[in-house]
């Protein structure tokens, strides 16, 4: 686990700082760390093994010229250390990734570092982490965010609503898209459209086979899969539910993403393909809504699937990631379905009509861009459920 230290937690760093830069006394380090209290342009991230701090990264925004850079500010790796007994487990890479993500969120598109000329081991580590040598001092620079984070993205339910917004968002950034939908969509450059109805038995696995063939054709190694396809029907009270529509909802909302993720992990086993799975969820997965027993249940199920899969990946120290994304309320066809429900079946009907009338529904493209920026920013936390409101805060 990696956490960002708060101002009152800097004492945790003392043994780690001494491991990286020996020679200073604890009081000298404490005096130095006081200078970082309240500094919004600096951050410390610590890697933990249970309750023991085993490594850290220090990142700072540099606004003066950074060797090899072409922008400002530049995120700068001021320090990186992992306890000798815990090395070669990918911890340093994760510490750098969270530092890059922090810098990217503050407007940086480049990330710098430097090492001493004689420190060949550190130079080799920087190059493994994607840095490019900028000068023989040795200074390093790398681009962060953007298309380097993925080679292609797979989107289910890609022909309308949030799915359509996601396709536009990624194509705009030059990311190849493999779209899966049950209805035809307009031909677009950079988009491979696959027609599959994920509510039909056996189709999710057939679709996955086709997707994997396309991934191999592209030669993609970093693949993001967004399980966006979803249905809200049936909206009805328990006792009045249509059995066929109930079964369809579970096939699309739960079975399809679980089956496809399971199959993709099997395909990726033994390869160097790194998967990031995003399950699109809803606030309905964590609170009961009268008339929504089916939708509530399917989203609660996909939330738990996300958390368990994330836990398992962390335990196995896998490079794959599984997260969930709550897009909030959007102006989509699903909202139209909600507003067309009967008041008898759906007690909160008036509130959803009011959201539309007041213009409080976000556009699918706004929500899509927020997810894209999260993924471009770098490493995401396994099992985490990300909320669009948090991602758009301050924007």
UniProtKB/TrEMBL annotation:
It comes from the Bacteria. Gene3D superfamilies: 3.40.630.30, NAD(P)-binding Rossmann-like Domain. Transmembrane segments: none annotated. Its EC number is 2.3.1.82. Residues 1-151 form the N-acetyltransferase domain. GO terms for molecular function: aminoglycoside 6'-N-acetyltransferase activity. It is found in: Cytoplasm. Keywords: Acyltransferase, Cytoplasm, NADP, Oxidoreductase, Transferase. The keyword ATP-binding does not apply. The keyword Acyltransferase applies. This is Aminoglycoside 6'-N-acetyltransferase. It comes from Chryseomicrobium palamuruense.
